[in-house]
Design a protein that fits this description.
It is rod-shaped and about 100 Å long. The longest helix is centred in the middle third of the chain and has 56 residues, at 8-63. The protein is mostly helical and 74 residues long. It has helices at 8-63, 68-73. It is 84% helix and 0% strand.
């Protein structure tokens, strides 16, 4: 038995649904790309802050006096 051909209106409906889904996925992709860019900027800013804090902590540690047992060894 041969299958009956799909009516043209059903094909058109499926194509419309596919086009609608495609447009929805494009919008979602654009929003996700914006989020990735925003999070990348935030991450980079946090890395800069972390490195700045490390430099400041290292400077404070360098100014601290050595413990007595280490001073005797030098």
């Amino acid at each position: 038995m041969a299958q009956a051909p799909i009516p043209l209106d059903q094909v058109a409906e499926r194509v419309e649904r596919l086009l609608s889904r495609h447009a929805e996925l494009r919008r979602t992709n654009a929003l996700l790309a914006e989020q990735v860019a925003s999070l990348t900027r935030e991450r980079d800013a946090l890395r800069v802050r972390l490195n700045t804090a490390r430099v400041r902590i290292d400077a404070v540690l360098d100014r601290l006096p050595l413990p007595l047992d280490e001073e005797e060894q030098t």
